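Hi there,

I know you've been waiting on this one. I reran it after we fixed the sequence typo, so this is the corrected version. Both the input and the resulting structure follow.
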Amino acid sequence: MKSIKDWCAEHNITEVECLVADMAGIPRGKILPTGKFLDGLDEKSHRLPESVYIQTVTGDFPQDKEIVDPIDIDVILDPDPNTIRPVPWYDEPTAQIICDSHYVDGSEVELSSRQILRRVLALYAERDWKPIVAPELEFFLVKVNADPDYPLEPPIGRSGRPETGRQSFGIDAVNEFDPLFEDVYDYCDAQQIDIDTLNHESGAAQFEINFRHGDPLSLADQVFLFKRTVRQTATRHNVYATFMAKPMQIEPGSSMHIHQSVIDGKTGRNIFINDDGTDGPRLSHFIGGLQKYMPATLALAAPNVNSYRRFTYHEAPINTHWGYDNRTCGLRVPSSPPEARRIENRLAGADVNPYLAFAGTLVAGYLGLIEEIEADQPHKESVYNLPRNLPQHLDDALHAMEKCEPIRKALGERFVEAAVAVKNAEYHTYLTVISSWEREHLLLNV
């Protein structure tokens, strides 16, 4: 591709946004005039405090002083030239670029979620394997909500009325918000975000966008930018877009289903199938790894207190059982030609940091492959009535990740400690909040 300097000149860029994803997947970074940005590339002068990677969603930091150096050292930003894109909703020509980061001694920042995904992909590369993913991301459009104590409501569409009933795969229901989605597609096209199908989901003003399959790092970058794009577009149309896992009490939650397969780097063939096109032992091993290790990585697929409310809805997965084309299972093998054999992980919510969600599911599958873990038998009936075998609360999920040695080793000791500390800090902050349910049912009754 062109150099960053040539790209900026060709697009008449006047400002550049340097972006990183924090632990929650929130964009953080700096906005610089183009000249200063380009000068800083040669001088390695673009820096952020290391603590930005462990800022909580409330803007606080863990109390554990061992997680971050007491002097909160700077880390050097490494803009990835493959990620430079325009910011299409600005009037002024502006670029955005996703950054890696390293310490002054040249070592990688192990708290960076993008680096965690790179670390997992390196495990595959050591065995000449290449994982492929295809995410499916759900979200809600809601009325502008200025009061966080007030429940969310569906927005008004072009008809002048909000949705009141289920509109699964409804074409007219999508058309209610055509102007918004036309902008989303235009903005994604300008940013080379490779989205595919749009459909209405079962919730009121709930939608799903599918991404084309590809390299996990590239797809994580695209999901990271897509979530920002949808939120910005919605705001321009006087509504909110939310990727909360369970934003409304009476509506279903929003997921990010992750389709995944693995290609042999030498032959280019799907390692899940035999030469005759039948399912091979590695399909079972990958599923077995997901079954064994997803409970220990669930904190990456369900990273917020609200994430676990999604699992209370009757159509959400509650365990790690698997089956062929069985949507009641947490792990599903869709019907496909042999070369497209894949596993759909249905456990992740839409509220994830995509780098960490991909890292979590891929590392679980990787451990299954190298340990040759056999999956249990596929289920043909509904598994909703079978026992839950996943953590049911955030603190349980954090404890499971903290105690799993193979996951700690694969993801890095310091990252796991930091992730647990950040999410524990968020959880304890949540516990200090008194909800409207408590005031309604306990205030005068207990």
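Quick highlight: The two ends are 67 Å apart (CA to CA).

Best,
R. S.
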